[in-house]
Design a protein that fits this description.
The complex is a heterodimer. By secondary structure, chain A is mainly alpha-helical. Chain A is built from eight helices and no strands. Chain A has one domain. In chain A, 81% of the residues lie in helices and 0% in strands. Chain A is globular. Chain B is built from eleven helices and 15 strands. Chain B is extended. The chains are: A mainly alpha, B alpha+beta. Chains A and B meet through helix 1, helix 2, helix 3, helix 4 and helix 5 of A and helix 1, helix 3 and helix 4 of B.
C-alpha cells in the first residue's frame, strides 16, 4: 500500500506546483477564470487517470494539454464568448473607465477569435509563451527543439496579427 | 555574414543573454537587421498586450479537493496504464491486466458472430466520457480469469520464448540513438478472462444511478464473453530496476522502448452472439454518438482489432508496416508513440518514449 500512497502524494505535489500555471494557460486562451479552472481540472483528472505523477514529462504534458484543451473549447464555444468576456471584465477590471473597457472587450474578443482560427501548434506556442513559460518549457511541452522556438514564435505572432486584422476588416 | 534569422531576432527580444557573439556583433553593425529587430520587437510587444488577461486567482487546496472528489479521478477500469504509471508492483503483470481489460471492451465491440479473430487493425476515436461509460460495464456482471496470465521477466530471448510456448520475441534491427541497450525480455503464457453478464447486477447498478437499462436481449442474463489473449513475448529497453526500498517511484525509469508480439486475441460468446453483446453495450447511456458511429462504420468487424484512441490527446494514422495495414499512434514529439499491426496471426506492438518516425522505422525493420 506504500506505493499507492506515494503515488497520490506525488500527484498532490504535482497539482500544487502546476495547478496555477495550468489555469494561467487556459485563462490566457479563454479569458475566463471559471472556464479556465474547469479546463485545468479536466486536464488533471485526465492526467491522473493514465499517467504517473512522478513521470519526467508530467509538467510538459499538463502544459500542452492545457493549451490544446482550452483552444478546443475556444473553437467550440464561440457563441458563448460574448457572455464570458463580459464576465471576465466585470470581475477583473471594475476600475477601468467605461470607454476603455469597451475597447479592451472588443480587442479581447477579436484576439480570441483569431486564436481560434489559427492552427493548433502556433496558437499553443503563443499561449504558452504569453503564460510565462520559458523557451525550454515551451519546447518541452510541444516536443520541438528549443532552437526552433524563436522562429515558431515569430511566425505565430505574424499569423495572429494578420488574423486579428482580418477579423477587423471582415 | 548573412543577415540574422527572424527566429534569432525574436529570441533576442525575450532574452538579453541571446545577444552575444557573432550575432550581436552583426546586429550592432547592420542597419537592416536593426530595423527588423525593431519590427520584431514591436510585434512581440503588441501581441503580448493583445494576449493580456486579468490574472486568475486560484484556491489550489479547494481545486485539489474537487479533482480528487470527482468520480472520473479514479482510474478507468480500475487500473492505470502501467506503461505510463510505474509502481512498486510488477510493471509487467499490471500491463497484462490492462491489455486484457482493454481487449475485453474492444473485442466486444469489434466482434460479429460468436467468434472473433482479428487480421487487421483500425482505430476508433474515444473520449474520456466514453471510457467512463464503458468502465461501468464492470457493474453489469463478473469478470474472472479462467486462465491466469503467467508472466516472467527473463534475461534471454530463448527463456522468454519457452514461457510463451515457443513464440519467438521480435528482433530489433537497429535501436534509435539515445535508447538504452539494457534489455529485459518477457514471456507470457496464454491467458483467458470470462465476463458473465448478470441481469440482476445490471438492473441494480442502473437503479443506483437513477437510470433505466436498455431492453436486454432474451438470453443476455448469464451470457458469457470469453477473451483469450497471448501467449506473448517481448522486450523492454531501458533500465527497469526498482529502487532498493521499493517505495520511491521517482527513481523508476520509464521504459524507452517496448517491442512485443502476441498471438491475436480471440473472443467467443455463449447464449447471445457477439453482435448482440456489441449492440447492448452501445445502447448503454453515456456512450457518445461519435463512438457509436465510428464502430458501426468499421468495415468487416469480425476481422478487425479496434484500437481506442483518446481524441483529445493522441493522434493516429493508418500506415503500412511490413506490407500490411497498421496504426501509428502519437507523434514526433518523443513523449510517446507506437505502432500496432497484425500479421500472420500475431499482433505486433512497437511503443515507447520515442518519435513516431523511429517507431515506424523499428517496426518496418523488425525481424
Amino acid at each position: 500500500m506504500t506505493a499507492v500512497r506515494t503515488d497520490d502524494d506525488a500527484f498532490e505535489a504535482l497539482f500544487t506546483s502546476e495547478y496555477g500555471r495550468v489555469v494561467g494557460i487556459a485563462n490566457r486562451v479563454l479569458a475566463d477564470q471559471h472556464e479556465a479552472e474547469d479546463v485545468a481540472q479536466e486536464v488533471f483528472i485526465d492526467f491522473h487517470r493514465l499517467h504517473s505523477a512522478s513521470a519526467d514529462y508530467a509538467p510538459a504534458w499538463l502544459h500542452r494539454a492545457a493549451a490544446h484543451a482550452s483552444l478546443n473549447r475556444l473553437r467550440g464555444a464561440r457563441r458563448r464568448q460574448k457572455r464570458e468576456f463580459a464576465q471576465a471584465i466585470e470581475e477583473g477590471e471594475r476600475t477601468l473607465d467605461p470607454q476603455k473597457q469597451v475597447e479592451m472587450d472588443e480587442d479581447r474578443r477579436r484576439v480570441r477569435e483569431a486564436l481560434g482560427r489559427m492552427a493548433p501548434k502556433p496558437a499553443a506556442v503563443l499561449v504558452l509563451r504569453a503564460s510565462g513559460l520559458s523557451y525550454a518549457e515551451v519546447a518541452q511541452a510541444l516536443g520541438v527543439g528549443i532552437s526552433q522556438i524563436g522562429t515558431l514564435l515569430r511566425r505565430a505572432e505574424e499569423t495572429l496579427r494578420k488574423e486579428v486584422t482580418r477579423g477587423t476588416s471582415s | 555574414m548573412a543577415h540574422l534569422a527572424d527566429g534569432t531576432l525574436r529570441r533576442m527580444v525575450d532574452d538579453p543573454d541571446a545577444k552575444v557573439g557573432a550575432d550581436a556583433a552583426h546586429l550592432e553593425s547592420c542597419a537592416e537587421c536593426q530595423a527588423r529587430f525593431e519590427a520584431v520587437s514591436d510585434d512581440a510587444r503588441s501581441i503580448s498586450a493583445l494576449l493580456a488577461v486579468p490574472e486568475a486567482r486560484v484556491d489550489v487546496g479547494r481545486a485539489f479537493a474537487t479533482v480528487m472528489g470527482a468520480p472520473q479521478a479514479r482510474p478507468a477500469l480500475g487500473l492505470r496504464l502501467p506503461f505510463f504509471r510505474p509502481s512498486a508492483r510488477p510493471l509487467t503483470l499490471a500491463f497484462v491486466a490492462a491489455v486484457a481489460a482493454a481487449a475485453l471492451v474492444v473485442v466486444a465491440f469489434a466482434a460479429n458472430g460468436f467468434f472473433f479473430k482479428p487480421t487487421t487493425v483500425k482505430t476508433v476515436p474515444i473520449t474520456v466520457a466514453d471510457i467512463e461509460a464503458l468502465s461501468q460495464l464492470a457493474n453489469y456482471g463478473t469478470l474472472t480469469w479462467t486462465k491466469q496470465p503467467e508472466l516472467q521477466a527473463t534475461t534471454s530471448a530463448a527463456d522468454a520464448a519457452a514461457i510463451a510456448g515457443g513464440l519467438q520475441p521480435p528482433v530489433v534491427a537497429k535501436l534509435p540513438a539515445g535508447v538504452s541497450t539494457t534489455v529485459t525480455y518477457g514471456g507470457m503464457s496464454e491467458a483467458q478472462a470470462t465476463f458473465t453478464f448478470s441481469a440482476a447486477k445490471a438492473a441494480a447498478s442502473a437503479a443506483a444511478q437513477g437510470k433505466t437499462l436498455p431492453t436486454m436481449p432474451a438470453e443476455m442474463d448469464g451470457a458469457t464473453l470469453t477473451i483469450t489473449v497471448g501467449p506473448a513475448v517481448g522486450e523492454v529497453y531501458g533500465n527497469l530496476s526498482n529502487p532498493a526500498n521499493g517505495a520511491d517511484t521517482n527513481t523508476i525509469n520509464l521504459p524507452q522502448l517496448i517491442v512485443a508480439r502476441s498471438a491475436a486475441p480471440q473472443a467467443t460468446a455463449t447464449k447471445v452472439s457477439l453482435t448482440q453483446f456489441e449492440d447492448y453495450i452501445l445502447a448503454q447511456p453515456g456512450i457518445s454518438d461519435q463512438l457509436k458511429n465510428a464502430i458501426k462504420a468499421i468495415g468487416d468487424p469480425s476481422t478487425t482489432l479496434l484500437i481506442p484512441v483518446p481524441v483529445q490527446y493522441a493522434t493516429s494514422a493508418q500506415v503500412t508496416v511490413q506490407g500490411v495495414e497498421g496504426v501509428a499512434l502519437g507523434d514526433n514529439t518523443g513523449v510517446g508513440s507506437g505502432v500496432v499491426w497484425v500479421k500472420n496471426g500475431s499482433v505486433y506492438v512497437v511503443a515507447g518514449s520515442i518519435k513516431q518516425s523511429d517507431a515506424l522505422d523499428i517496426a518496418n525493420n523488425l525481424k
